[in-house]
Amino acid sequence: MNYTLHQLEIFLKITQLQSVTKASEALYLTQPAVSIQLKKFQEQFKTPLFEIVGRKIYITEFGEEIAKAAENILNEVQAINYKALSFQGELAGKLKIAIVSTAKYVMPYFLSDFMNQNKGVDLIMDVTNKAEVVRALENNEVDFAMVSTIPGHLKINRIELMENKLFMVAGKDYKLKGKYLSYSEFQKLPLIYREQGSATRLAMEKFIDSRKISTYKKIELKSNEALKQAVISGLGCSIMPLIGIKNAIANGELQIIPVQQLPITTNWNLIWLSSKNLTNIAKALIDYIEGNKASIIKKHFNWLDKY
């Protein structure tokens, strides 16, 4: 047998995604190139690795076993690369971060220069809702989490990054009566919420409940992008983080509706368990952010000061 690491990587990715097309996209290769390597890999085994039924690929039991072996081999190769870099005095290894979905508009800016300076660091960033982020942190599955609401039941350390402002927004065709949206008008609006477990939803519900505003129609969507598109289309209004709607406001697709006692202001925080045995990479990231936070905010987020 004379298979290559490249072929192992391709077959593993196909197994994980159950699709040649998705694997080619994930690996930044053309579909024909992936198909050719898959064919060459199969030719080295007498037992089928996969079956094609219709247009769908199914991995055989033998193929699943080969995929597990491939994953182990690739992990060992990666470990060798990390060790080589470590012996050269460079940071090397994995950095795992879980962030709430709206934080995807913030966290990359605090990571980009750090990652460019440390080529041996591999970033794994999971973007999900607050409940899943806290669960991953609590189970020690990640080094850091980025949230706007601190989980009270965990002992954590944190770096406060920047403000997170949430405004009432509507589509471009909404006509406001008066200077501010009255609570009586508020009650007539169809409102769009994030899903249960979202910090944005929690903040929105807390604001509405504290002012005893009754709502007649509620729509729930599972991502900030889907919610934004729904508001743009005129499906309803919502209280949304400003950080995720910059372009939509600038090009006139969305408008901020003035409401007394809005915006809601929280803070983005990078948090980690107090009991966490931090890796050298994690310690280096903390030092980097603490030393560069102000300049990153000034460079990338000074537009927030207008609101």
TrEMBL record:
Gene source species: Seonamhaeicola aphaedonensis
**GO molecular function terms attached to this record:** DNA-binding transcription factor activity; transcription cis-regulatory region binding
Q: HTH lysR-type domain: from which residue to which, for each copy?
A: 1-60
Q: Does the keyword Transcription regulation apply?
A: yes
* Taxonomic classification: Bacteria, Pseudomonadati, Bacteroidota, Flavobacteriia, Flavobacteriales
Top-level taxon of the source organism? Bacteria
Q: What is this protein called?
A: DNA-binding transcriptional LysR family regulator
> Which PROSITE patterns does the protein's record reference?
HTH_LYSR
| Family statement drawn from the similarity comment of this UniProt entry | Belongs to the LysR transcriptional regulatory family.
Keyword entries, A-Z: DNA-binding, Transcription, Transcription regulation
Where in the sequence is the signal peptide annotated?
Answer: none
